[in-house]
Amino acid sequence: MKIAIQDTYGERFKYCWGCGSKNEDGLHLKSYPGDEENTCVTEIVPDGQYTGGVPANLFGGMIAMIFDCHGTASAAYFNHIKNGLELREDTIIKRFITARLEIDYKKPTPMGEIVKVIAKPLEMTDRKVILLMQMYAKDELRADAKMVAVGVKDNM
């Protein structure tokens, strides 16, 4: 059984609009360890209200939000396994937040399609994870991103 990384966030970190399980109005984006080693994956079919200036394409800010939520969850997971820990249902994972996010928009991302993002760690320290992400729709690269995510203390 695969466990969503966001479902292992501590209670006070479950209210994110993009990925928080306790945000009633949120999207509830879920990220999972990938089938390939050192990868995390998310998939979403964004609702029509998230269209951009061109109605058939996804709004760029929504693309950034997907990268943001998936990237911080992926950073938490990569840090977790680097420390020799397993992701289990009772895990309370260390939370990471975005310090920097760079996005290269390659092609328009079509609406009504599965959007898949794959994250891979590039560099890790005890407090920081740098990762690369690629966004696909219809098996074509639509955007890629580089994120610097930093771990936060539980009392942030």
UniProtKB/TrEMBL annotation:
Pfam families per the record?
4HBT
Q: Ranges for the Thioesterase domain? A: 57-140
Q: Which InterPro entries match?
A: HotDog_dom_sf, Thioestr_dom
Q: What is this protein called?
A: Thioesterase family protein
Q: Which organism does this record belong to? A: Anaerococcus prevotii ACS-065-V-Col13
